Amino acid sequence: MAARRAASSLLSRGLIARPSAASSTGDSAILGAGSARGFLPGALHRFSAAPAAAATAAATEEPIQPPVDVKYTKLLINGNFVDAASGKTFATVDPRTGDVIARVAEGDAEDVNRAVAAARRAFDEGPWPRMTAYERCRVLLRFADLIEQHADEIAALETWDGGKTLEQTTGTEVPMVARYMRYYGGWADKIHGLVVPADGPHHVQVLHEPIGVAGQIIPWNFPLLMFAWKVGPALACGNAVVLKTAEQTPLSALFVASLLHEAGLPDGVLNVVSGFGPTAGATLSSHMGVDKLAFTGSTGTGKIVLELAARSNLKPVTLELGGKSPFIVMDDADVDQAVELAHRALFFNQGQCCCAGSRTFVHERVYDEFVEKARARALQRVVGDPFRTGVEQGPQIDGEQFKKILQYVKSGVDSGATLVAGGDRAGSRGFYIQPTVFADVEDEMKIAQEEIFGPVQSILKFRFAALEFPRIPCDRDRLSTGIYTNTLRAMCSTVEEVVRRANATPYGLAAGVFTQRLDAANTLARALRVGTVWVNTYDVFDAAVPFGGYKMSGVGREKGVYSLRNYLQTKAVVTPIKDAAWL
Predict the structure, then answer these.
(1) Where are the transmembrane segments (predicted)?
(2) What is the mean pLDDT of each run of 10 residues along the chain (583 residues)?
(3) Which of 101, 213, 462, 515 sits at 20 to 30 Å (Cα–Cα) from 284?
(4) Please, what are the domains in the chain?
(5) Catalytic choice (153, 158, 167, 320)
């Protein structure tokens, strides 16, 4: 138990140990356009023979039968699993093979209306907002216990439906869901208002009240975690919820929703509708009976959700959207450590992560070494059936995403970036893609501008801008030999170039900084226009740490105390005081 709790603070923990990039060997690789980087003279191959054979074998082995049965495929409305009003269903697909796992009830406008009506009754007339906060706390804590009791089933469903490695879902994601629910359960009886002084004889209370019916739309890349991020704070505050799952990954949310009712959640407080964006999602976003909306997904869809919410009842909206996060490697970096961290920052979850470190900025002094070792690390990455032990990377979510990623790879080649690893599908079945690395990437290239959402690392070069100081020559050759002190090194250079380039994007979700210099870390952390800066680490998602973006990466914050504010209304109550002993 203690090990699971420790793992829950890092999304990148719980994964298998990885070989050191420094010990990697193998022929260098280039495919298509782009200049050779000088690894080896002449024509080069994409993969060295051994890594290519291992990766291909892993991706072409017969899939393992998942150790779990699909129990819940219907809509959850008012405490019951029911068919869609239309009777329609849709297929949820195993990304390892493209085969159908199960057919799931396809909710549309009528089903959303039923779910919102159930949530409204539960909030306006039911016991949930009227029970003591401690009782709500106990329900959420029991739910966390049930998640741990059913951890193997939940993890297997998440791996089967979404293509994540079983080691990731078992060792990291499911324990994190339990941790988040305990965190929000702990908050339930600690939400309180204030008594504030007035300028006259008045007693002023500030109350924090549940907002009402919350509509929530979660994505396919982290369905379990997003369930916890959204449902946890909403319930802790005493609200009712209508949750729409992503059509690609509906199974795990339905399963854990059943456990919430087993934990004692009253009927109608949580309703789950599986369906598609243009029907179920649009209806929920524009519904006049929904008091609050939360959405995680692409920036383009987020704009539509925000517009629908505004055009209906002007409901407040929390948005967690796309990103193109910079990962900055300074000239003083331990290159082996930086390569491994940058690798995890990008390739984690098959690269399907909104905050993936998808623009790797590397200082020119260590650039060539970094590229060679990043290439070697990518060639070592094991791609295959996510149920197999030792596999680091499973398939992409579906055929649409698979094709989109390969189109971005082609764009990178066509624009002149150097493809040093990967660039093609892995195996011949399912939606597997080789870990791909581009060098010589320029800021204006499509692969450096747009969110790829796949296992494609783009490595860009940056340099320091020299400052002119009287009587202090700025000799970079002498700096590199250590003749000057670290203080003079800092005086003779600035990080203005990399800050400007890192911020030159419509996104602002996250960033990584890898340096041994505290001054550089502090400067970058404050200069980068993003919601999260990880210094010498990446993908730390502790329950108490807020998460959200600047600019077109979203509106508002999730997790921590900040997420509670999304689901509370603030009310001032003012009453006169006569013959007050004190004011």
Answers:
(1) none
(2) 41 38 33 34 32 54 94 98 98 98 98 98 98 98 98 98 98 98 98 94 96 98 98 98 98 98 98 98 98 98 98 98 98 96 98 98 97 98 97 98 98 98 96 98 98 98 62 46 47 77 98 96 97 98 97 97 97 95 88
(3) 101
(4) 75-322+561-569 (3.40.605.10), 326-469+483-544 (3.40.309.10)
(5) 320
